[in-house]
Every structure is written in C-alpha cells, then in structure tokens.
Amino acid sequence: MCSSIFFPTLGLWMGEETPLPYPWLMLFCLVASYAFTDQWSMLYFRASVAPWFGAAAIVQFVREELANYRIDPVLPLGHLFLWLLMILLFHKKTMRIYWYIIFMSFLLMLIAALHNSSLAFGILMGGYLTLIIWTLSQFTLVRTADQFRGVAVSRQTNSRLRPIVAGSVASSAIIFAVALLLFLVVPRRGQTAWSQAANRPGQYLTGFDERIRLGQLGTILESDEEVMVVRMFDEKGQPYRPVDEPYWRGVALVHYQEGRWERRVDADPKESPWSEPPDRFIRQDIRLQAVHRDVLFGLRPAFRGQTQSGEPLVLDRLDGTLSRSGEIPTGPLQYTVESLADGSTSQPSELSARRMLRDQHFLSALTQVPANLRTPLRAYVARLNISSADDPMALIGSLMAHLQDPEIFDYTLRAAVADPDIDPVLDFLVNRKEGHCEYFASALALLLRAHDVPARVVNGFKGGDLNDILGPSIVVRQKHAHSWVEAIVRPADQPARWITLDPTPGPGRQRQVALVDRTPPLIRQVRDVSRQVWSYYVLNFNSTEQEAAIYGPVREYVTMQTQQLVTAAKATWTNPPRGFNWLAAALASAITMLLIVLFKLLSHMLSSATLVWDENGQGDSAGFFARLLHGIHKLLARWSLLKSPARPRIAFYDQLLLALESHGLLKPLTSTPRQFAQHAGLELQRRPGGIAVAHIPDELIDRYYQVRFGHRHLTPSQTHEIDRQLSELTTKKGRGPIFRNGPEGASHKLDLSPFSPRKE
Question: Comparing C-alpha atoms, which of 631, 637, 594, 606 is closest to residue 753?
C-alpha cells in the first residue's frame, strides 16, 4: 500500500519543472501514519476534523489553479490528490478508506503520466502497476476470507504464501499481456499518441536554429541523450555499415557577425524537386526525436526523402538543408532518406556551385567577412608562410593541417574567453588555441572567406554508437553533435563543386565523446533498446507506427497466403495431377458434407430430447441414454474392482472428515485438505489427550494425496493401518460410532465400505 502511494508521488515529482519536496513529505507521512496511526493508534484525524483539512486542500487547489490554468491546468489537480492522500493516511483504516487511497493513487499516476516521457518513468509506472495488481489481489483474498470469518482456518505458513505470490505474479503477467495486446491493436487516429506542449522547455536542442551564437553547440556535447536511431541499407535492401563516421547533415549557416551565425535563406522559396534513384544508393530509415521544429538530418547528397506515411520532405535549393513541410507536424518523426553512395557527388536539386560563383548575390553571401576581421585573418594566414595562398586547394590543405596540428591546437569543451575585446574566432586562433568543433569550423570558414573562397558552416551530427541487438543500427546522441565546413572549389579542368571539410582534430574529439558516458557497451546497447521500445512503441505509437508494425505486416501476410492459395488452386485446376479424378473428388466431398450435416442433426436431436437425455433434480437418471451410461459406468467400476482387489479406498477421506468433526473441527470451503490437516493437528495438540492422535490427520492426508493424485494402490497392510488410525481418532475421547442424519431426518450409520463414492 505504501509503495502504491509513493510511486505516483515520485512520478509527479519527476514531471514537474519546479518540483516541491513532495516525495520526502509523502514518505514522512507514510512512516508516521504507519507507526502512530496504524500500529500505536496515537494519532489520527477524527471525523469532525478531517473535512476541515480537506477544505483547506481544496482552497489551495483553487488558488493554484487560478494562477496556472493557462500553463498547466492538470498539475494542481495532482497536488490536490497528494494532500487528500496525506489526510487519508491518518484515518482509522477501513476497507472503504483503502479503496479511496488506491483510487486516488491511480488518478495521481495518470496525471504523472501526462507530465513524463522518459524511460525511467516507464519503469516506475510498470512497478506501480505490478504493485497495484498485487494490492487488489490481496484485497480480494481478504474480502473472500471475511465471508468465512468464524470458520476454522489453518494458520499462515510458508507453503501457503508461495501460491499467493505465484498467483499474484501470474495475474500481473496476464493483465499486462492483455493490456499490451489492446494497446497495440486498438486503432489510433492522428500522428502522435503522447503529445506535449510545444513551448515546453527542453524539447528542442540548441545549435540547430536560424540564428545561433558561437559556442552554443557545446551545451549539448556533454549530454548522452538519444537524438535519433538510424538503420542503413543499400539499394538491394541489405544492411549497410559505413566504413567511416557518417556526417548527418543538418542546418547550413551563411552569415557571420560578432560570434553569431545566421542561416538567411529567405531569398529563395523552399522546393524539393527530387531526382530519380541512381544505380547505387544508401537508404537511411531514421527515427528522430524532437530536435528542431523543421530541420531534419541525413547523409549528403540526398536525392529523395519522405516520411513513413509518404509525405515528401523539403530540400532547400540554396543551402541544401533538409526539413519537414508545413503539413508534417512537429515532434518526433520517422522518415527515410536515400543518398548517393559517393559523397563527393554534387547535391541534386540544389543550386549548382557554378551558378553560385556566377551570381554576385550568392557569391558575396558565401564570402562575407566582418570588416574588422578580414585584415587580421589575412595577416594570420600570412604568418603561416603558405607558399601558394592564392591557390584554393593549396590553401585548404595548409589550413586543415594547421588547425589539426596537436602541437598547436587542442579539442576541449571549455568555452573560456581570453580576450573579450576581440572577435571570438580571432581570440580562438590567437590566444586560446583550444575549443570544440564550432570554433574550428568557424575559423576555417572565415579564413577561407578572407581569401575569397566561398564557404559555409554546417551543424549536424557525426558518427554514433553501433547497436546490433535489434539489427544493425546507429544510435546518434547529443554528444555526437558536430560542426564542419562546406566550401566551393574549382579543381583544374573540372567544374566547380562543393566539398566537405572537417578541421576538428579527430582524436581529441573522440576522447571527449568517450568521456561523456563510460557505460560498458553491452549495458549501453540494452539501455538503448529499452529507450527505443519505450519511445517508439509507447510514447509515439501513432496510427502510422501501428500501420507499419501491426496492420501492414498482418495484411501483407494474409494477402500473400491468399495469393499463394489461389495460385495453387489455379495450377491444380489447369494441370491436375496424374490419376486425379475430379468427379470422385467432388463425390467424396459431397458425402463428407452430408455426414457432417447428419451428425449435427443427430446431436441436436439427442441433446434436445428431455425424455432421452435429461436428469431429474435429485441427480437420478431419467432418460434412456443417461440410464444406459450410468449402468455402464457401474459395471466398469465393479469389473475394475474384481480385477484389482487393492483398489484405492478414497472413502477413508470422508471418514477422516467425520472423525475430525467429532472433535469439533469442520473443514472450511477455502482450505485445501493439507491445510485443514495441519490446522487440525495443531488444535488436537492443544487439547487434553489429543497429542497422541495429533499426527494422524497429516499421515492420512499423505495417503489421500498418494491415492487421489499419485494413482497409487493401497496394500492390505496399509488399509488395515488406515482403519486402525481412524478408529483411534474416533474413539479417543470415548465417543461411539459416528452417525449422520439422512436427508429425511432418519439416522443411518456411516458406510465404511471402501467403495463409497465421494464427489470432489
């Protein structure tokens, strides 16, 4: 009971943005009420006082609701239930109070479920449901036992506790299985099964907006939270494993000013004229969390993209950013991106690099550098003594080698500023010489722009954790967030094209990523699978997911089996096997159907004829077939007796019950023979002269179990010993033979025949 109250309190506390110490207060009330109210009866609310505390809780609820109804109108109701539960804990416990507590705790857990979406809460809710089922099972047992209060029952033993525990566990498993089946099968409507407020803090990650501040991406690099799960396949549908860490391209940033990057792509409308699939490509099935309201991720160059339900994705022609259209709702999304296997190929549907070089508007945007930075950046490159700084390819190679030199630069997540009076990028190059990927990418992009090489910064993710438990997949986390550079080059005798440049030192970045989470790989993979199941098949199990996971496969299987059956039937009809006679087959089928119909009619006629089959109220056979079957049963029983003289004497169990009845011990309906025998032995030991026969009930029940369930036969010596023990148990207190009144009041002596029937 205590756990069924504390778990919802903890769940509500987990879902609050500014939580109060409700768990500790509720824990204190649970301990205090158990000690001072339930055990010692020292502190409890009287019936005249409790309503005043309830009224105070309602006043607090109204006050909190008026202040927060526009933000979260449900949370104050959860606080009201908390206060009411605390009041009920200090009441004298009756069955009605217990039911009130269980009902309110269940409502409190529902409110907590509306404010939580983490795997930890899922585990907490599973534990709560198990405990609540256990509690309800115990209530049912107590209520049933109360119906037989005053009847002799056996004492609690370990052997009795075990089936109770097993029964509760089995009940929990069955209820969970049925609930899971209903949850998966019941049709859904809409795109999400678990919605949250769009303005709730923490839903979107920083670093993937239209405007970001330099260093903002570093705020998520220390987090191990999952961003997306990617399954990769080749053009044949076979699982694909990338050789190097893949770059999951996100938002492209063009304009820079005083440590801020902006996207600025409003000059051209978004279009997505997807091209035809090439001969070789890589398909990525991506399950994305709520990272950004628009920006999506995938390998570049992409030639096609769509959601799981078929809506096409949008590819911006100016900067190649992949995003969702206005018809696709925000929040978690499952989509597919198909990309070219050759990453050096130009991005289809994007404005060509050649056109951007010819268009002065695009060229000036891609070579834009703040006026106060161009001269210092050119001077910085001049100090590097690059022999051919005017050659873009030679300049790129020299700058990449310089920024990745471990003797000069180091990778770190610290964002300390050495000189706040100068630009952050210049401060990074001249003073700090350490930073994370955004600083390296920004430095390379601005150094190239200072020498009139078009470049832009891209924020996305790089790499991920491999997971093979549920098939090959890549789990991309926040710590895999990354920035790199895309530049336009024009190699000799080749057209201009975009190339991807990553100036961040690889070993340093890998060390920092490994330090974020040191969980062993196997445990991490199991945890990832649990999060995926919770996120995709509980929180976001919408109509699309249901169609893909259940209805679609079932429909496809039924359709395939039907088509195979129709094909086989057509083949048999057009080309019958050798020796096959259609006329004989049709005749045999008709005769079989006729026999089935006749059998059904005969069964219905016999079962509906009361003079043929029915029995009267005393159980005596009244119909012909009933009498015939009863006679056959008696004949077989006597024949079995003649064949086996040592037939089990089950009737001694009746004699044992009557013998114990002579001592005032009646077997309750809720006790098993073993439990009643144990209780009878304990009662006999407490009575004068009963110690000598206290062992007899247990021994006779052992014999009964061997005969009744072990199908063992009694030997003559065992039969004689049973008769002796029954006689000793019956006459120990000087009583004579036991008599029982018949149905009409006449007395008759107990039939001690070993063949006396007993109905279980």
Answer: 637
Distance of CA 77 to the CA centre of its chain: 27
| Distance from chain centroid for Cα 326 | 30
Which pLDDT does position 589 carry in this prediction?
80
Which are the contacts of 645, defined by CB distance < 8 A and separation ≥ 6?
Answer: none
Look-up: residue for tokens 């093979």? 468
Which residue in the block uniquely carries the two structure tokens 């009746």?
654
Token readout for 663 is 């001592």
CA distance 257 to 445: 13
Bridge partners of 312? 306
| Cα gap 659→650, rounded to integer Å | 15
Identity of the amino acid at 577: P
Residue 287: which H helix or E strand, with range?
strand 281-288
**Dihedrals phi, psi of 281, to nearest 5 degrees:** -155, 170
Q: Distance between CA atoms of 194 and 541, rounded to whole angstroms? A: 8
Which residues, at least 6 apart from 93, have a Cβ–Cβ distance to it below 8 Å?
Answer: 37, 38
What separation in angstroms does the CA of 29 have from each of 10, 12, 678?
14, 17, 40
Neighbouring-strand partners of residue 228:
288, 476
CB neighbour class for 306 (10 Å; exposed up to 12, middle 13-18, buried from 19): middle
Residue of 527, 483, 528, 479 lying closest to 502 (CA atoms) = 483
The whole-angstrom separation of Cα 82 and Cα 25 is 10
Element (H, E) at 211: strand 211-213
The one-character DSSP state at 691 is G
- Phi, then psi, of 466 in degrees rounded to 5: -75, 140
pLDDT number for residue 644: 44
Rg for the chain (alpha carbons), in Å? 41
Confirm if 530 and 119 have CB atoms less than 8 A apart. yes
Residue recorded with tokens 């059998």: 599
Kindly state the tokens that stand for 458: 């891209």
Q: What is the pLDDT of residue 618?
A: 42
Q: Provide the sign of the torsion angle of the four alpha carbons 620, 626, 629, 635, taken in this order.
A: positive
Q: Are 273 and 245 in contact (CB under 8 A)?
A: no
The domains of the chain are located at 2-153, 363-457, 613-643, 651-749
**Amino acid found at 243:** V
Written as six digits, the tokens of 565 are 């059956």
Put the strands of the sheet holding 260-262 in their side by side order. Answer: 211-213, 260-262, 255-257
Contact between 487 and 453 under an 8 Å Cβ cutoff? The reply is: yes
Nearest to 133 by CA among 104, 95, 183, 175: 175
**Runs of H (alpha helix) within 119-232:** 119-147, 158-185
Q: Which of 120, 48, 122, 45 is nearest to 85 (CA)?
A: 45
Burial of 493 (0-12, 13-18, 19+ CB in 10 A): exposed
Walking along the chain (760 residues) 10 residues at a time, the average pLDDT comes out as 78 73 81 86 79 88 82 83 88 83 85 77 80 75 63 49 69 74 67 43 65 80 86 89 90 90 64 68 89 86 85 85 82 87 71 76 88 90 79 89 91 82 91 90 93 92 86 88 90 81 89 80 79 72 71 82 81 70 77 83 58 44 58 64 47 85 81 86 84 87 83 83 87 47 37 38
* 3-state SS, residue 316: coil
Note whether 154 and 676 are within 8 A (CB): yes
687: its two tokens: 């009575």
Q: Are 542 and 190 in contact (CB under 8 A)?
A: yes
Please give the pLDDT value at position 513: 84
